[in-house]
Amino acid sequence: MDSIVVKGGTPLKGKIEIAGAKNAALTLMPATILSDEPLTLTNTPRLSDIKTMTTLLESLGVEVTSLQGGKVQVMSSHGMTTTRADYEIVRKMRASNLVLGPLLAKHHQAVVSLPGGCAIGARPMDIHVTALEAMGATIDLKDGYLHATTKGGLKGAKVPLRFASVGATENILMAATLAKGTTVISNAAREPEIVDLADCLRAMGAQIDGDGTSTIEIQGVDRLGAATHRVVTDRIELGTYMLAPVIAGGEVECIGGRMNLVSAFVEKLQMAGVEVSETKDGLRVARANGRPKAVDVTTEPFPGFPTDLQAQMMAMLCMAEGTSVLEEKIFENRFMHAPELTRMGADIDVQGGTATVTGVSKMKGAQVMATDLRASVSLILAGLAAEGETVVNRVYHLDRGYEHVEEKLGAVGAKVERVKTDG
Ligand code: UD1
Asked: How many CB atoms lie within 10 A of CB 400?
């Protein structure tokens, strides 16, 4: 299993190209099931989660051709062979559950294993199930699998979500494109990845209004056609690399970055005394003098501060001046990076969903363990400012969500190296 070795203390300077969004690609890929004609995605990130989704789609009989070193996926579902998503694949990644809505809508049946994914809380699927039942599906849980059927196809319905779940909104949105009549999702998630999915579905011929707001209205159509769609920029990768110069010092331009993808996050950076400006090609971040200042952060659904940037933000707050309070409102058990950061000299007190972080003037390199995807990268970020060497072990989670992290950080002067270890 690989480790990442970070030698801290070098200020950064240069440009980092931000990839297409993992979380957008993971819902755009299953959308191919809705059509017999090809769906081509460009700007897909080169990540192990994308390979897992490819394996899952191929197991259903979808043809997936990966071009340009993984940056383009051409998919065709005309020869699908099964509607069963097996545990062996689904357990690797929660987003596998995004085949449920498309399978039900197109084939009127699906057997989908309950998912695994990052160990960051309970992550049930009740919101998906309740909504699809409202649209006329019958869903039973047997042997760890959801068995879903719908006689004569899904029907449009009013679907209020008890929480603005990203995955549930995506599943319902995809399902509703082929349902009979009109579906109205209220309390829908408003994440940019939802808007990206709606854009792609519209290009395939779907009729959707209101994506990006809390109420999405979908008028079902008989069939969807072929489309080519460019995956939106990854706002989480963007935020992660924007934090690198804040932590290490220096100045980085994130190419492809847009303010409207990360506005709540940028607001907090500015409160911490960080300079963020828009450039022709992206966003430029600079930390000129001294340490950033402490800021309080609460994670919320979009447009609030994203839970997927909480761990990285904590790494920054560990070396800020003053005390910050971080509240995690989306997932319980998402502070597993805190004890690892503490091993590097951070002062963090976790009580339930609240972490109180008192900044220290110097972090120290240590051996640490990556516990989930975003936690892994937060430890690398912390290592950029730490004295000496930080070794982040068990980085397989990292490769699920960050392509070429050592090259991207290396290109702006960071000393980050991947070390192959046995076992
Ligand atoms: C997506 C993102 C993930 C991000 C999360 C929140 C993808 C592939 N993953 O995950 O990176 O951290 O949004 O922004 O896009 N919940 C229920 N019942 C349900 C569904 C969800 O109780 O049926 C709860 C979850 O346990 C969690 C909260 O709702 O506490 C948010 O989950 P959700 O928005 O569904 O996240 P995902 O779509 O799984």
From this structure: 21
Residue 125 CA: nearest ligand 1 atom is 23
118 labelled catalytic: yes
In this structure, the residues whose C-beta lies within 6 A of any atom of ligand 1 are: 23, 26, 94-95, 121-128, 163, 165-168, 307-308, 330-331
Of 230, 264, 299, at which residue does a domain stop? 230
Last residue of a domain, one of 208, 230, 252: 230
Q: Which domain holds residue 350?
A: 2-19+233-420
Nearest C-alpha to atom 39 of ligand 1 is from which residue?
A: 167
Residue indicated by tokens 């501060």? 305
322 and 180 both lie in a single domain: no
Q: pLDDT tens-digit profile of 335-351?
A: 999 999 999 999 999 99
297 and 356 in one domain? Answer: yes
CA pseudo-torsion sign 302, 236, 395, 413:
negative
Q: Are residues 384 and 318 in the same domain?
A: yes
What is the Å distance from ligand 1's center to 201 Cα?
21
Those residues with Cβ within 8 angstroms of residue 345's Cβ, 6 or more apart along the chain or in another chain: 360, 362, 363, 364, 366, 386
> Based on the domain organization, do 283 and 364 belong to the same domain?
yes
For 86-129, the pLDDT digits (tens) are: 999 998 899 999 999 999 999 999 999 987 544 545 568 999 99
Q: CA 388, 394, 396: angle at the middle one, nearest 5? A: 120
Pair 105, 136 in one domain: yes
